[in-house]
Design brief:
Low-confidence stretches: none
Number of helices: 9
Strand content: 15-25%
Shape: globular
Largest sheet: 10 strands, mixed
Mean pLDDT: 90
Number of domains: 2
Oligomer: single chain
Number of strands: 13
Length: 302
């Protein structure tokens, strides 16, 4: 008797941007895998996204939030739901991606061949430039904990490549990882929550892999392109929380200097490009991140 296929739940977090979500869902409902469910967590969309999902995709489970709780919190709502439903694997997938029809079948097969793998990810290519690839994974700099890009030559042989970071663009997780490591850290409204989770998973003994022979297409940052100011704000705020969390011990002064340099570089570039509102938002995000860390440290010492 053939064993049943593992139960896979796919979680998308949406906030407006119906057109890209529709393209993603249209592919997902046609996947060539028998035992899977799609869950959409809508973060208080103000357009027609949730109502249209219910009308056009009745097989999709829709979880509605009245407010935009952020990516991490939105994912966690979905994760709690699918764990209660008995998911064996969970795919956190950006709603601005276009998955191939064999995506889940190949991810499940790869996970079966890599028993030490806690988190897997495919390669993403730009939807408007398929010859270019979008990094879905990378390495952790030994001194700064910052993201170090993969080089294309590292992926040429097509074999699974161990990495330190897998991004939330397409994060395929085993159930035991979620049970052991827990959920995403909701201190990160958006950005860096995936890097934080990967470091926690690695500390728990799990390996992470990028799979060069499995591809998805990605409308890069299409789900946030209309709100560039907010993107800069949350990138800055989350970066302070992340690097304060992992920049401990003897490396802290080095990381502080490095991050200050990165901040100066980013603000200078934004000003040079006449993105004054974005530069202001980035500085405000840095300040709010610093203020949050100070308050958090004060609570922990009480």
């Amino acid at each position: 008797m053939t064993e049943p296929s593992p139960l896979v739940h796919i979680i998308l977090v949406t906030w407006n941007h119906w057109s890209v979500t529709a393209e993603c869902l249209a592919q997902l409902v046609q996947l060539g895998y028998t035992n899977y469910h799609i869950v959409v967590v809508d973060n208080g969309s103000t357009d027609t996204t949730p109502d249209t999902i219910e009308t056009l995709f009745p097989t999709v489970t829709l979880l509605r939030n009245t407010d935009n709780l952020g990516f991490a919190a939105g994912c966690n709502i979905g994760l709690r739901h699918v764990l209660a439903m008995g998911a064996d694997y969970v795919l956190l997938l950006n709603n601005d991606t276009i998955p191939s029809l064999d995506l889940i079948s190949r991810l499940v097969a790869a996970a079966g061949s890599l028993p030490d793998a806690g988190i897997l990810t495919p390669i993403a290519t730009y939807a408007d430039a398929p010859q270019r690839w979008w990094p879905t994974a990378g390495f952790c700099h030994r001194l700064t904990s910052d993201y170090v890009r993969l080089h294309p030559e590292q992926l040429l042989d097509g074999r699974p490549l161990p990495v330190n970071y897998v991004f939330g663009t397409a994060m395929f997780l085993r159930r035991p990882v979620l049970e052991q490591v827990g959920l995403l850290d909701e201190r990160y409204f958006m950005y860096y929550e995936d890097m934080d989770y990967c470091l926690r998973a690695a500390r728990a003994g799990w390996e992470l892999y990028v799979l060069p022979d499995i591809h998805i297409s990605h409308h890069v940052e299409a789900s946030t392109e209309e709100d560039l100011v907010s993107r800069q704000y949350f990138k800055a705020r989350s970066s302070v929380i992340f690097f304060r969390s992992y920049g401990s011990g003897a490396y802290r002064p080095l990381i502080t200097i490095y991050r200050l340099g990165c901040a100066v570089k980013r603000v200078t570039r934004l000003l040079w490009q006449h993105q004054f509102l974005e530069a202001r938002a980035y500085l405000r995000g840095l300040w709010h991140g610093i203020r949050y860390v100070i308050k958090d440290n004060a609570k922990s010492t009480l």
